[in-house]
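step 4 of 6: structure.
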Amino acid sequence: MTLLDLAGVARTYNDGHPVYALRATTLTIPEGSYVTISGPSGSGKSTLLNVLGLLDAPDEGSYRVRGVEMAGADEALRGAVRGQLFGFVFQAFHLLPGRTARENVEIGMVYGPSRRRERRTRAEEALARMGLGHRLNADPRALSGGERQRVAIARAVAARPRVLFCDEPTGSLDSANTANVLTLLRELNNDGLTVVVVTHEAEVAAEGGLRLRVEDGIVTTHTEEARAHGFT
Amino acid sequence: MPTGSRKRRRRADLTTLGLVVPRLRLVDVLAESALSVVRHPGRSLVTALGAVLGAAAFVSVLGLSSTLGSQVSDAFDARRATEVVVNADADGPATDAAWQGGPALKRLTRLNGVTAAGARVRVPGQEVRRAAAFTATTVTAPVVGLDPASLGVVGPRLVAGRAFDRFHEDNAVPVVMLPRTVADALGIARTGVAVFIADRAYTVIGVFDDVARQPDTLTAVVMPFATVQPLAEGDVSDQVKRSVLVETSPGAARLVASQAPLALRPEGPDGLQAVAPADPQTLRREVEGEVTRFALLVSGVALVIGAVSIGNAATAGLAVRVSEIGLRRAVGGRPVHIFVQLVGETTVLGGFGGVLGALLGVVTTGAVSLYNGWVPVLDLRVAVLASLGGAAAGLAAGFVPALRATRLQPVNALHR
């Protein structure tokens, strides 16, 4: 089943002169895929992720989530989709200092439909799954880089999203922690979660079933699977 | 597209996607505000500082001004506000002493608001000499005759001996009370010695150094009203002044002054003139009005400075919270969530600062009053008002930074 569907989507930044961050892109991402987006710095891979994650709006084209048009949608709808269908993991973790690991995970659900007690239970379950059941009350400042990223992943998955967007999730981690995070992402994908990862590391990019490469705002693919999914 | 149909479309889209219609749950958003405030005590304190100082200034300025105001009123009430002097006009009954007599004074004391009334006669400059022949010291001082009631009105503060009483008055006993200045000039250090005035001996029975009313008595030799009569009648200078001193209840002075001449001399009240001090009520109201206006101005300015300070601190704090705001937007927070949370934070901090500042102001008012021996007068509603003012200042101050925060695009906020 098609989950995310881009048709002729383009994003241009106008900073004195136009910068074509993403040129007309047509792309279909089926439910349950493991997508990796790689490319050199400034190629537009993060722009693609931001457009897909509704963190940024395209200037042209159509973007459908489960068949619902998102181009021109108001902030209430975009916010609801981000909060309830999508989860995000960033290179910089974006954990709030002064809040415990559990409270940080709860923030991922605070604007959604779940109640306080439910949020707490889900946060504890998500952290336990990330192997952090013993660090529920730790301040992020007291955690290692690997642990912080696992708290961030717990925050992203606790709300039970359908798509997990990861922007350079292993960019700040050593090889051991990178392997750990990749295993977690693989497990989540095996459970049916669609995973979209932006990376500049070949090792991480190789994980994808659908591998995309972005250069100068143009998206290309190296896999047969991609062609089978209608990418042209 | 009209708002109604846009809402319907959004609802339909959300249903298609299997999502819940997002709502603003105030409890959750305010709980986030509270956590942000509690978990960052340093940042919170800096933000609340403006409200603390503003409220403390508000309460202590108003507290101290009302305390001082009450000190001033006490002084007014206890002294000048309760005094009326009835004098004979220049063309009035200078020698006709009937209006100073017992029946006239009795009529006067029956008036509402009169607590005491007595006669006084003032004889100008007399030579006062000590009895001992070998000291040639003489002092020229006016002689004032007071009956026991008017002596009470004048209220001399004795430093030696005693005051004369009804016995001395009834028997016209030749006794005097000297002000300290005259006693010192004559070299009199104790009572019981005699002084000579117009070749007649008087026994010094008391020395005083201050009076409650009629401060010109501080330079005069004081003796019983009856005792001074021969002196007054013998005086040819035409400078003898007769009057009636009245003590009234607080606030009654002006009314008593308007009625006293008629009570003392029903047959010819025009010949008498009653003098009451400027109405202390009006004066006090004017003074207090000025003080209160000034205090309110200062306090208002303090609160405004507090509000600006909270706004500044909140805006500065925003710079380090950009990524937090980006994250909140990424996980589904709408601009209204961010706005309510940030305004909630500044309101809570403003209110907290207001309470803390109000307490500080109460303590300051109490401490300054204690140090100066004043009775602290503070309307507790002022403290409540200061706390509410702090919260209101926080609410107002939060608007600008919160609005700015809502304009941040999540993609920009997350990558800063």
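step 5 of 6: annotate
 - Chain A touches chain B through 39 residues (CB under 8 Å).
 - Chain A has one domain: 2-228.
step 6 of 6: archive
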